[in-house]
Amino acid sequence: MKNKAIAGSRAERTRTFPGLPLVALAFTVIANQSVSAAPQWQAMNSSPGTIGAIKTEQKETGLTTLRQAIKDSQVSLSVQGDGYTTSSVRLLLTNKTKLPLKLVIPANEVLHPNTSAVQTMMITKDMVVTLPVGQVTIAEVPTVCASVKTVPPPPKDGVNFEVGPYADAKLWRQLSAIIAAASELDRSGAFASVPINTGRIDQIAQLAVWRVLGLASGKPEHAVTPETIQADLLKAVADQVKKNPELLKQLGDGYELSPKGELIVTKRQKKALDERVASIFDAVDLTVKRSTDPGLKSVASLPQDSTWDTYVNVGERSYHKGDYVEAEELLSQAVQEAEVFGEADARLSRSMTSLAKCYLDLSWWEKAEALFNRALKLREKVTGASSPEVAEVSQYLGLLKQHQKLYGAAEEQFKRPGHI
Questions:
Q1: Within this chain, do residues 151 and 197 fall inside the same structural domain, yes or no?
Q2: DSSP state of 8
Q3: Tens digits of per-residue pLDDT, 205-254?
Q4: Structurally, how many domains does the chain consist of?
């Protein structure tokens, strides 16, 4: 039997996943409180002793992307869920090579199941996972469902998945924008009054994704409206109350179960419920509208087959997050791959400039200067001395000289043509 290793720290592995399943959200909204008896999505750990962190003395040598590793048959992939939660799944990754691998998994990568009875999932954050030789590594990843809301999530026993682009490129771009919009709005406090106690941003983002997919589908069963949200929540609670009648008491006054198994709400409670659902839908609608705003920033790029594309985009995002160790590794690999494209290719100067910025922030002046100077010469040759591309590099060279207290040299860079 193969050993298994869990990617990530112990704290990451044992926490409850962000986002609630529909039934827990239903109790939160309908009862306006958390209900402990409602099923929760727990961190996916096997029983003690079955899965644990495995120490290895092997060095990490093979950097690649998830998509490329599967294409090259270096890694096999299975995806497990719990059958009802969409905000996280775990990837079971088997390293089939004779060397340790380091997989780069970009945000917006799409996981396609081998059956139409399981949701297509979209990963929402960048991850880098190390795969030891001869082991199954379990990587817990944040996701949204990229199928209409009627398709079930991945089951506990796992399903084989492929990795690749979303079928509709335009929709894919909007789903990516929804994730960015939800994060931006949450940071600004726009969701502060939304009556969801746990996993608020994940629930709103998922409902926004389902709203967009429902509008694209045009089928009533796929729609996300205040009416359908309330109907889905009431049904979820009714199903749980039928299994455990004691839960009805936790809802408080104003609720009862009909002989047909439907949850009946009094007029007084209905008004409060309408208000809570309206607040949720307003947040969902705001997220969808914000996702279409050309001014929206921090939208992660859509993954491509090119490994260079993944390295440079994930590396640049790591740099902006302040993860310089990861950024330096990925951007160094991007430069190495871009060398093959030739000096006239913009991908080379971009890779060099991004890596040099990382060196600049690390105070590695000599490395930064060498890359900035080479990128500057390449851009001058290709785009012209007065181009915005050249001005970008000269600006950073000026900052570098300022850090070195060479103020005359800094001023010279800042006075170059095209500098803003």
A1: no
A2: S
A3: 999 999 999 999 999 999 999 999 999 888 888 888 888 888 888 887 88
A4: 3
Take residue 253 and report the two structure tokens written for it: 């006054």
Residues 6 or more apart in contact with residue 354 via CB below 8 angstroms: 312, 315, 316, 319, 331, 334
Same domain, 37 and 118: yes
Q: What is the DSSP string of 325-390?
A: HHHHHHHHHHHHHHGGG-TTSHHHHHHHHHHHHHHHHTT-HHHHHHHHHHHHHHHHHHH-TTSHHH
Minimal CA–CA distance to 377: which of 398, 401, 348? 348
The backbone torsions φ and ψ at residue 329, rounded to the nearest 5 degrees and listed phi first, read -65, -45
Q: Evaluate whether 25 touches 196 at the Cβ level (below 8 Å).
A: yes
Residues 7 and 85 in one domain: yes
- For 89, the 3-state DSSP assignment is strand
Closest CA to 27 of 219, 246, 247: 247
Residue 194: count other Cβ atoms within 10 Å of its Cβ.
Answer: 20
Cα distance between residue 101 and residue 32, in whole Å: 47
As given in the structure block, the two tokens for residue 218 are 């045009």
What are the CA-CA distances from residue 249 to residues 18, 256, 267 (Å)? 27, 9, 18
Tell me the pLDDT tens digit for each residue of 159-188.
899 999 999 999 999 999 999 999 999 999
Could you give the strand order of the β-sheet that contains 62-65, starting from the edge strand earlier in sequence?
62-65, 101-105, 127-131
Query: Containing domain of residue 132, as a range?
Result: 3-165
* Beta bridge partners of residue 205, listed in sequence order: none
